[in-house]
Amino acid sequence: MTESPSRKMDERRLFNQNQQQIKLNNQNHEYYQIQGEDNDEIDFDESVQQNINDNNQQIFSDNDDSFEQMQDQDQDDFIDLDEDEQSPKRFLDNLDKRTKIISLSPDKKSQSSIENDENTQSSYSLEKVVGLMMLKKDRKIPNSVYKPHSEEVFIVVSSFFSNSSSGFQRILFPYPKYCQRTDTAPSFLQIDHPQLYDPKYYMIKVYAQSELKKNKLQLGFKMTDSTHIYNSVVNTMKNAGVRIVAPNTSKWNVTWTGITKPELLREMFRYQRVNHFPQSFHLGRKDLMWKNIYKMKRQYQSDYDICPQTYLLPDDYKKLVADREAEGNKNLYILKPNASSCGKGISVLGPQDPIPKKGGYLVSKYLAHPHLIDGLKYDLRIYVLVTSYDPLKIYLFREGLVRFATEKYSTNPNNLKKRFIHLTNYSVNKKAEGYVRNQDKVGGDNNLDEERSSKWNLLQLKKQFDKLGIDYSQVKGRIKDVIIKTLISVEPHIMNSMTRCTRHRNVCFEVYGFDILLDAKLKPWLLEVNISPSLSSSSPLDKKIKTMLICDTLNLTGVQPFDKKKTLKEQEQQLRNRLLGLNKSPKSRGKSFEYLGGDGCEKIMKIMDQPLCEDELQIIVDYEEEQLRKGNFDLIFPLPLNVPYYSQFFEFPRTGNETLWKYIRILTAQKNNQNIGSQN
């Protein structure tokens, strides 16, 4: 029976009335993405099956597999990857044009289906489904949207804090089952310094959700509309027992956003975490990144030869023309937008191609002799975590992605415009006939399909290097050098903003996606840094790597459950101490032990063999606790062997750096003396 036009208009009006409420809650859903720096992949439904009824509307499936993985041909039917970054309103408007509501019967058992364009497979739009559910439930989002997957929460208990403080607890983020890892909670602990750690002070406690609520400990996760909604992030939170909270509440432990605003930083508690540092666009914008590196290159010459020579248009136009003529117009260049991603707006310029004068673009020397595998150009996506800039602490994730172009490499003038030859971006090459999806759910297994795929993990690259007789560890060491120098170059900007905007030193963390290209001599070159790297699950390989990345990031960052009222009292006491200068005085260390206490802190004091003020002790405690929770991350700075070299590149001395570097030197010296004594 055909519905009347008036009935359809009424249904549409009811649905539109809920659009605003939906948008306020859209960060709670993981079907689509909104904005970001590196939007080259999109999460989609793997099973695309939802059973909706009056009693149970389960949006996120308990097995973490819902809303993942459609085929590539279906992805573009929902979001045009070549469009500019979309606001939530624009996204919803575009989505609304592509879908049609078939049934909205509030008086019947909720049965809804959504038809897509004729050439696409039938699927549910999460936004539409939630809209239908809100109509049925008197415009209220059902609790199942917010509800965590896990009824149990694992807490790591630390010996560096007194039991009277909530600071001694850290939420454990276990890997979901689809990561196919056998890690259990106890094996998560990594003891690097046995002289500091006693197992009886490091234990895993398991709490039921009801116990946490009874103790007034909050576990809240908030996402803003300036970021993408990623399965890997949302599932990690819900799998750990963390509840998604409303966007207007202050009761949260972690906020996942696209931009960290100063007002957010000023309002944060000591136990809260946000996923970006302020001013990180100095790293994420290609033009600003080059300015920072070029400034260091002028001062340190070949030490900072880590990025291809770049010219910013229109300011450097005359210099570019002069350099090009001096080279005899023989070299290739590459034109890029200053602030774009997914290969949009990029073109290779031949010797005779004109150079545009328009602003908003940069031109770099094209690395015309890249290292090739099976005749294909490739680049590396390396994941890096910074947990603090004061002191600077840099961690390298052991896994990453190797992204291949899909046509044999050639610098023939007739092929310069062929993007499948010269660009390695997923969003470009997924449209090529030669693109092969990596369907390996484990990653690193030896099978023919995996070797032919257009995306590898780093373990596969290592195996290939071993076959070719290439020293993978040596190449990796050079990549670490590029990463450390790049982050040091932007440290002054971020520290200046942190000093002005934050009350607490370690409330921010940030995951970076470094794009590295190896030339024919295996020298790594920095292409760009994504401050919001794509975390989508476009293949089983992506799904595993990126979920593990988020789990380990949150574990290493140290997310803490806390009582808001108790925290406010703590902050008031700390503010009084700061105003009185007590936190800077070694004599106040007794006061510090009100929340910094236990045998761990006592052992640190003995190692340093000198009084430490509260701030100094907290810096060392943070460092030691992070070494306990590294997971698949490796600390690459500071290390005893590289601090003497990299310390010369810092523009200003920082108390945090000096304190941590001194502690590392003393700890290393004591360990070396113990080794010598044991040998004798």
Please explain how this structure is put together.
By secondary structure, this protein is α+β, with helices and mostly antiparallel strands. The protein folds into five domains: 5-145, no CATH class; 152-256, no CATH class; 277-305 and 367-531, D-amino Acid Aminotransferase, Chain A, domain 1 (2-Layer Sandwich); 309-362, no CATH class; 581-679, no CATH class. 36% of the residues lie in helices and 14% in strands. The protein is built from 24 helices and 21 strands. The strands form five sheets. Strands 14, 15, 16, 17, 18, 19, 20 and 21 form an eight-stranded antiparallel sheet that branches. A four-stranded parallel sheet has the order 7-6-8-9, covered by helices on one side. Strands 10-13-11-12 form a four-stranded antiparallel sheet, with helices on both faces. Strand 14 and strand 15 (376-389) form a beta hairpin. The longest helix is centred in the last third of the chain and has 30 residues, at 472-501. The protein is globular, with a radius of gyration of 26 Å. 42% of the residues are buried. Residues 18-37, 40-142, 162-167, 184-188, 193-198 and 587-595 have low confidence and may be disordered.
Architecture blueprint of SSEs:
Elements: H1 5-17, H2 19-24, H3 72-75, H4 88-98, E1 100-101, E2 114-115, H5 126-136, H6 143-146, E3 152-157, E4 169-171, E5 203-208, H7 209-214, E6 220-223, H8 231-239, E7 243-244, E8 254-256, H9 262-267, E9 273-274, H10 281-284, H11 286-300, E10 310-312, H12 317-326, E11 333-337, E12 347-349, E13 361-365, E14 372-373, E15 376-389, E16 392-397, E17 401-404, H13 419-422, H14 426-429, H15 448-452, E18 455-457, H16 458-468, H17 472-501, E19 510-518, E20 524-530, H18 540-557, H19 564-580, H20 589-592, H21 599-608, H22 614-628, E21 633-637, H23 643-646, H24 655-679
Parallel strand pairs: 6-7, 6-8, 8-9
Antiparallel strand pairs: 1-2, 3-4, 3-5, 10-13, 11-12, 11-13, 14-15, 15-16, 15-17, 15-19, 16-21, 17-18, 19-20
Helix pairs in contact: 8-18, 11-17, 22-24
